[in-house]
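Please annotate this fold before class:
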Amino acid sequence: MTTERMEMGTKIWLDDIRLPPDESWFWVKNFNDLNQLLNDEHLEVEVISFDHDLGDNTPDGSQCASRFIEIGIERGWQDPPEYHVHSDNPCGRDNIVSKMESWKKIKRMGLL
């Protein structure tokens, strides 16, 4: 990851098939890719966009959202980053949105 991208804030595109909107996004295709990117303690996430269905026998986008939130809490991110869900799976989309919105609500309440 280049220093320039880190200073600008990182845009993460989680999808096993669809290409990111443009070259400014880091394309991660699964839970392991996301986890590897999140291992960079200096990472500043500007925005993340989730797909839900990431292939057979792999953690889904909802599990990735849980890991993303866990990392954010561990690192003490002041505010949850902007997020989008571009999944075609309505139940999966709802699960991801519910997790991310709960994180935002808990942060606003000062419980983290």
User: Anything to note?
Assistant: The chain has a mean pLDDT of 91. Residues 3-108 form a domain with the Rossmann fold fold (CATH 3.40.50).
